[in-house]
Amino acid sequence: MLPTVNALRYVVPLKEGGSLPGVMEADDCGTWVVKYRGAGQGVKVLVAEIIVAGIARAIGVRVPELKLIEMPEQIAKYEADEEVQDLLNASVGLNLAMDFLPGAFNYDGSTPPPPQDAAAILWLDAYVANIDRTPHNPNLLRWGKQLWAIDHGAGLYFHHTWPSRTPDPNRFAAQRFDDSGHILRPVAGSVSTVHQAARDAVTPELLAGIVADVPDEWLEPTDDLPNATAIRAMYVDHLVERLERPDAWLPEDGR
Ligand SMILES: Nc1ncnc2c1ncn2[C@@H]1O[C@H](COP(=O)(O)OP(=O)(O)OP(=O)(O)O)[C@@H](O)[C@H]1O
Ligand SMILES: [Mg+2]
What we know:
Protein name: HipA-like kinase domain-containing protein
Number of domains: 2
Number of strands: 8
Low-confidence stretches: none
Radius of gyration: 18 Å
Strand content: 15-25%
Structural class: alpha+beta
InterPro entries: HipA_2
Mean pLDDT: 96
Largest sheet: 5 strands, mixed, barrel
Domain HipA-like kinase: 16-249
Shape: globular
Helix content: 25-40%
Organism: Calidifontibacter indicus
Bound molecules: adenosine-5'-triphosphate, magnesium ion
Order of helices and strands: EEEHEHEEHEEHHHH
């Protein structure tokens, strides 16, 4: 599991975020962006954040460090904004913490990353089927002269169907990816080169280690997946299967 810190003080909401993530100070002296378990999007987006960030790291895409953060009841006590107060109250307990990158600004395309860095991010998004990286909503931060990928909650959307449909790794493996609106498509280099390296890096063992980072209580059992062990194995099966079938989803090589 990821290490856990304790929230001490609520600092400010990040208003650009639809889920209204908050900045908090914690007992490790760190400042963290907190993504709430009680936000409208549900706990599965936090599961996707952890798994996709783990894959990103394995292929060399920069993502802020993740931890879990325990939020006490009294954190909402001095918060005047009612919407934030509701969110905090609904999220007492374990939430996701992402290292706050001070002074980072949203990527606007004016200083593109090297073609191979762009290709790695495009590959990542195609692999996990994350369509949430467009000029309108880049979900990329420029910080320390480098590009950092954030906000991966829209990836691995297949898990949202698990309560109603029997999980099917083949279905996900064959799912196409429309890269036409991807913010880095115009500047991306060879995606097939990234894929070759990723096939060596993203092993079943690596994936099992990444899904082990997800807390048990965020893995929601269904009729088909009665416990955390079964759910973790199903994530690994989906990702292993898709890695084998790039013909279905791998974007064409760019420059
Ligand atoms: N680690 C970070 N360091 C600094 N700023 C951040 C960090 N994470 C997020 N932000 C800022 O907060 C904004 C919202 O974050 P994020 O996109 O993760 O939230 P969200 O609620 O999932 O967003 P969306 O509206 O795309 O659903 C970002 O666009 C960025 O400006
Ligand atoms: Mg976002």
